[in-house]
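Complex record, two chains
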Amino acid sequence: NAGVTQTPKFRILKIGQSMTLQCTQDMNHNYMYWYRQDPGMGLKLIYYSVGAGITDKGEVPNGYNVSRSTTEDFPLRLELAAPSQTSVYFCASRPGLAGDTQYFGPGTRLTVL
Amino acid sequence: QKEVEQNSGPLSVPEGAIASLNCTYSDRGSQSFFWYRQYSGKSPELIMSIYSNGDKEDGRFTAQLNKASQYVSLLIRDSQPSDSATYLCAVWGRGAQKLVFGQGTRLTINP
C-alpha cells in the first residue's frame, strides 16, 4: 500500500490564481481530512469527509472547496489564492472504526505571492 | 478552555534523560488518545495510542492516561537527539468524526 499520497509536493501561486491539491489513499478508508499548518503552529482542520459524496466544514473552510466522488480521492480546491493561504497542507485518512486514528500524507507546501 | 491543551514549550532535555510531555482535554467522554511525532518539514506520524487508564509502554515510550483528571502524558526514556521533534496530543472530539489536536510541544534533546 502506498498509504496517503499528495500532489504536488511544492507549489508557488500568484495572488488570484486557483489550483487543486490532490489527495489519494489506497487503504479503502472511509474518512478523509484536510488540514493546514502555518509555520510554528498547530494543525487546523479545513474540511473532512465521512464517505464518498459526504463532506463537512472544519474550523477554517473559507477560501477552499472539496469534493469526494470516490472513496480514494479527496481533492482540495483553492479559488482566488491569497497570501494568507501560504501554508503546508496535509491530507489524512482513517478507516472509521472505533478507536482508530488518522494517517497523514507527506504534505503540500504552498506559497502564494 | 481549549479542547486539548499541551504544556507550553519549547522543552529542552539532556541526552539520556527522561522527557515528559503533558496534555489535558476538556471532554470527559473522550475514549481514545494519541501521541503523534512531527519532525520539522514532515507530516505527523503516530507513535502511541492509549484507551484505558494507566500506563502503556512501547520501547522507550510510555503513555499514561488518567481519565478522572482528564490528563494524558508521554514519557520518553533515555532521550536521544533523534527524539527532537514536535509532539502532538490528539483526542477524538464529540461524535468521533474529528480528531482534536493540541498545539504541540517542541522537544529538543541536547547531546
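Note: The first strand of chain A starts at residue 4 and ends at 7.
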